[in-house]
Amino acid sequence: MLITNRLSLLHRFLTIFFIFISISSCALSGRPPRFLGNFAKPATHRKTLPSHETRYFDQRLDHFSFRGDAKFKQRYLISTEHWAGPAQMAPIFLYCGNEGDIVWFAENTGFIWEIAPAFGAMVVFPEHRYYGESMPFGSRDEAYKNASTLAYLTSEQALADFAVLVTSLKRNLSAETSPVVLFGGSYGGMLAAWMRLKYPHIAIGALASSAPILQFEDIVPSETFYDIVSQDFKRESSRCFDTIKKSWDALEVEGQQPNGLKQLTKAFRLCGELKSTGDLNNWLESAYSSLAMVNYPYPSSFLMPLPGHPIKEVCKRIDSYPEGTSVLERIFGGVSVYYNFTGEVDCFQLDDDPHGMSGWNWQACTEMVMPMSSSRNSSMFRTYDYDYTAFKLWCLEEFNVEPRPNWITTEYGGHDYMTTWREFGSNIIFSNGLLDPWSGGRCFLQTITVLTFFYLNFDVENLYPLAVSSRMYQTLLLLSLQKKVWHFKI
């Protein structure tokens, strides 16, 4: 009876989650953008995670070669507090680790923790190789030493890590029949969707939140990301949008004045002397992009300690200065909401990487090549076209490696993606906040009579469906389903 009840509960889970929804059909510099921002700072007070253990797994360095047996310690968090056990075929919820410390992601992924008790599920958070404590070659310095040591930092190797880890875990717990459901947000969401495609025998389904799986080659317009960021600001205040748009020229004019860089260093309270206006531009661009990704309706500390609706607060600050206030003074006041909402920061570092995300530059310079540009009219950022040549030169200078812009679509698909999902993409949720700038690279599903995956839109931000209270998310989900469900099958 218990097994029957557990299977019935899991069936209801799949019935709710893996459903087709009818929707409409689609579509800076040389440095690559990062999913979660360049200059994120951890919260002063860490969140308390539910009961869990931190473990380490001896993981192969290279899953795709039979030469050598080099290994590294892969960290993972595991909670069996609510797991009903193998006898009841209780599920395993596996979060696909992103480009950062896994504890940071576990602290900000409340949805999985909240629904686990209802399904008697085990929760596993494996860390992505080359991030956090999961460093090959014994240390971060050695792992990031050169292109040869970084060569094993790929999405394919990471997916193999997850597959090997969960397979070993199930075997050791005599839980071979326990189904695995994948979760992930942003890059982790891409990994969740791709793992379901590549390892359908290991995972029965995936929730891919804010996963821009189409942000490659020419599948979506290259200006999409920055256009969405800009519209997020414009919807709060057109005056704020215009001020930010004017600020780039103002920065260049000031920087070209005698002692202009020193004046900018003082005006923006930088810890070190500014070397170029480009560095300051990147710092500001990162803040605006990150704000669009974490523009939650409640206070949060995912990237920075922030108030609810932070873009509204930024624009309110920019617009609040009296007539005659300079553009740059307004901009500094606005960006301080992001970088110093608590008021505790004395000066600002332009090259902070507290969450250990610097490996993303390598990934962007090898396989995760996402074309970006900024349009003249719709964007509040500096206008520029996507320049692959400049991007390639930057990657050669940084890593002595040449990007492979066609590899992701070769490995996972992307062009004619509807055919791929129709044939192979069952039991995958694509959930997105339409204010999230990465939503432009989301999967647009056309109306098809029978599919076992769905696409869900909310007018919210990056990772919101994974971060919010499950009650709120499930309510929104069910309200959406009442209006949009066409057909489902298990």
Description:
Strand 6, helix 7 and strand 7 form a beta-alpha-beta unit. The protein is α/β, with parallel strands linked by helices and 490 residues long. It folds into two domains: 248 residues, Alpha/Beta hydrolase fold, catalytic domain (Rossmann fold, 3-Layer(aba) Sandwich), CATH 3.40.50.1820; 177 residues, Serine carboxypeptidase S28, SKS domain (Four Helix Bundle (Hemerythrin (Met), subunit A), Up-down Bundle), CATH 1.20.120.980. Helix 8 crosses helix 9 and helix 9 packs across helix 12. It has an eight-stranded mixed β-sheet with strand order 2-3-5-4-6-7-8-9, with helices on both faces. It has a two-stranded antiparallel sheet with strand order 1-10.
Key attributes of the depicted protein:
globular, single chain, 10 strands, 8-stranded mixed beta sheet, disordered C terminus, two-stranded antiparallel ribbon, 490 residues, alpha/beta, Rossmann fold, 19 helices, Four Helix Bundle (Hemerythrin (Met), subunit A)
Short description:
By secondary structure, the protein is of the alpha/beta class.
What gyration radius follows from the Cα positions, in whole Å?
23 Å
Helix content: 40-55%
> What is the tally of beta strands?
10
Distance between the termini: 21 Å
Structural class: alpha/beta
CATH topology of the largest domain: Rossmann fold
Order of helices and strands: HEEEEHHEHHHEHEHHHHHHHHHHEEHHE
Low-confidence stretches: 1-30, 37-45, 446-455, 468-490
Task: Please summarize the sheet with the most strands.
Answer: 8 strands, mixed
| Tally of individual domains | 2
Mean pLDDT: 84
Identify the CATH architecture of the largest domain.
3-Layer(aba) Sandwich
Overall body shape: globular
Strands ordered across the widest β-sheet: 2-3-5-4-6-7-8-9
- The CATH class assignment of the largest domain is Alpha Beta
Number of helices: 19
What share of residues are in beta strands? 5-15%
**CATH-assigned homologous superfamily of the largest domain:** Alpha/Beta hydrolase fold, catalytic domain
